Amino acid sequence: MKTPQKSARNSVQVRDWPIAHLPGLSNENQSQLEECGISTIAQLIRMTKTPTAKVLLAHQLQIDIRYVNKWVAMANLARIPSVGCEYCGLLLHAGVASPAQLAEMPVERLHQQILRLHVATMQRNDLTPSVDRVQKWIQDAKLVIG
Prior knowledge:
Elements: E1 5-6, E2 13-14, H1 27-35, H2 41-46, H3 51-61, H4 65-78, H5 84-93, H6 99-104, H7 107-122, H8 131-145
Antiparallel strand pairs: 1-2
Helix pairs in contact: 3-4, 4-5, 7-8
């Protein structure tokens, strides 16, 4: 993992993870991204700042733009220290697509969405992160978007 970087706008340490840590990324996609000079989530975010840049990357990789949009959304969420690559996919599947959206979510509502997702997909509720953890995600997201 890269050294955390302190955001100039706030006091939270944003994270930069190797692209290989992004959930759902196949080895082939990882290799393709690395061939394009993208080996970290920060590089992915930097190289896809505009809709046109996302389309160009998708075209270069010969994949659907939805994959690029998904990777960028997870990369942005993974930069939140308490979320990281461990929970960015969970948040995206629970309907949270950005740190700004996460920062605006009521804690109880998000916790319930995640609980429903766990029950619906895994028939388990014991894997659901605690309300305190969800609160920390939201607090950190507010600092990241600062």
